UniProtKB/TrEMBL annotation:
InterPro entries: P-loop_NTPase. GO terms for biological process: DNA replication. The lineage of its organism: Eukaryota, Metazoa, Spiralia, Gnathifera, Rotifera. Transmembrane segments: none annotated. PANTHER family: DNA HELICASE-RELATED (PTHR23274), OS03G0423850 PROTEIN (PTHR23274:SF51). This is UvrD-like helicase C-terminal domain-containing protein. GO terms for cellular component: replication fork. It comes from Rotaria sordida.
């Protein structure tokens, strides 16, 4: 059965008014998540799709930034079709919505049984979140105009308030997002960017599973990646923690 992807489009506001200019709105919606406080402009989801929370919702029941779940469905108000903001990168049968109330997401690992035993299915409504970020409108100007006018950067910075769901698709995730998680089976890409390789960027993804059989490295990589040594700062931090541990032992009497 063919599923219809639903694309939830964020609502952006400048000075309390919704952004209605076509070019400006498309530019803001197209910003990467790391420039919008991790609220996506376009959120494409289909029932049964894995998702990731991008903020702390209820840490006491383990619904925190980075928690994985399974998307079930959107609950939303019907809005007039507006083809201006529909992105051609999505399948032609996609349904675009702009006024979601919340998303129903299943979180098998959360502790709802302890707090709300009547919710045995562990399906949680995830509500709209609000974040504010800056957008440089200078990016919309032709390069020759920007140079000729010598536009002041401060005057082109726009404060944008975004209302969107704090979710992202989670068929894959970054090393940073995987920290602290124990996963069943993983595929890891060890081809590193040209930046200096940190020990954590190698250790974290490779240690997300309990068994070597559950780990697959997706493509060939430089063996030197596995031989990276801790930085000076990391070594100093380990020494500091060792000193704290030694001082703690000296202050207490242990009975064996």
């Amino acid at each position: 059965m063919e599923l219809t992807p639903i694309v939830c489009i964020a609502q952006d506001y400048i000075q309390g008014k919704i952004v209605d200019d076509l070019r400006l709105r498309q530019a803001i919606l197209g910003l990467p998540d790391n420039k919008t406080e991790h609220l996506p402009g376009y959120l494409p989801l289909a029932p049964g799709m894995p998702v990731l929370l991008t903020e702390n919702v209820a840490s006491e029941i383990e619904l925190s930034n980075g928690t994985r779940g399974i998307f079930r469905r959107f609950v939303y108000d019907q809005s007039p079709e507006d083809v201006r903001y529909q992105d051609k990168n999505f399948p032609p049968n996609s349904k675009f919505i702009t006024q979601p109330k919340y998303a129903l997401v299943g979180f098998p690992g959360c502790k709802l049984d302890d707090k709300l035993p009547e919710l045995q299915s562990k399906i949680v409504p995830i509500a709209i979140s609000e974040q504010t970020f800056l957008f440089d409108a200078k990016e919309l100007l032709p390069e020759n105009v920007s140079k000729a006018a010598k536009i002041n950067k401060k005057t082109t910075k726009l404060s944008v308030k975004r209302k969107a769901l704090p979710l992202i698709p989670a068929y894959s995730m970054t090393t940073h997002k995987s920290q602290g998680q124990t996963l069943g089976k993983i595929i890891v890409d060890l081809v590193m960017p040209p930046d200096p390789i940190e020990l954590a960027s190698v250790y974290v993804p490779l240690s997300r599973v309990k068994r070597l059989d559950d780990l697959l490295i997706i493509r060939s990589f430089e063996f030197a990646t596995l031989q990276v040594k801790p930085s000076t700062a990391q070594i100093e931090e380990l020494k500091r923690l060792d000193r704290i541990a030694q001082n703690t032992r000296k202050g207490f009497h242990f009975i064996v």
